[in-house]
Every structure is written in C-alpha cells, then in structure tokens.
Predict the structure of SRPBCC family protein.
Amino acid sequence: MLHRIIDKKLEINALPGQVWKVFTDCEITRQMGGEYVTDWNAGNAFGWKGNDGNMYTNGKILKVVPEKLLRHSLFNGEKPPKEISIITYEFLECGGKTLLAAREEIHHAMTDKQYEEASQGWDYALNAVKDLAEKL
C-alpha cells in the first residue's frame, strides 16, 4: 500500500523562538546527533550532517519564515538527484507554548512497514526537539 503523507503535531512548553533555535543553532542540533548544513535562504541547499561528519540527507530550502515556518525538499542519492519528499514545519504559538506541526509529503512508494517506521522516526525526532527546546 502507498502512503503519501505523515502529519505530526506536538505541544512544546517553550516559545517558538526557542524551538526555532533547536533547528538553527548548531550547538543545540549537535545534541541530536548532527547539524543542518544550510544558509537558511530559500532556493539554497539543505542537508543533515551527522556528528560523524557524514552527510545523511540533501535537499533544498523551499521557504523560510523565521520562528514560523520551514519547508524543504529531500533528494535521493541518485545522479541527477530526484525529489523524494517535502517536509514542512510550522511553529505556532499557543499561550506561551509552541504547537510544532510537521508534515512530510512522500513522493515515492512505501510499504506499510516502511511507513510505520518513518512515522515512528518522526515521533522520536520531534520528542528530541521538544526535550531540547524545553531545556533552553
């Protein structure tokens, strides 16, 4: 079966600016195992580099509104690269807290098991963001 979208929402006891820092401050992201390699400008390269120095993902920044929205693509490792998904994060303030909404639009076939594993990966990653943001 094909699954095309993963939607997750998580309430974080921190303001959007603090949550944004978890994405953009290398000193903080390294606590999650790496850092984003980008200049945070739409149209430019975007990727995740692990603390081991390896690049694990590559894509392109599609839209940035600091502390409000981040949208980027992910590419496969082929030459020329093919877009495999688009990921959007929305940082919504709710009474001194942040509702972090994450959405992945998947552009390739996945089995039910792959989809379940990807969804669980999102839960893990978003909880790591929550833990770090709430400590700032």
Observations:
- The first strand starts at residue 5 and ends at 12.
- Helices lie at 16-24, 26-29, 112-135.
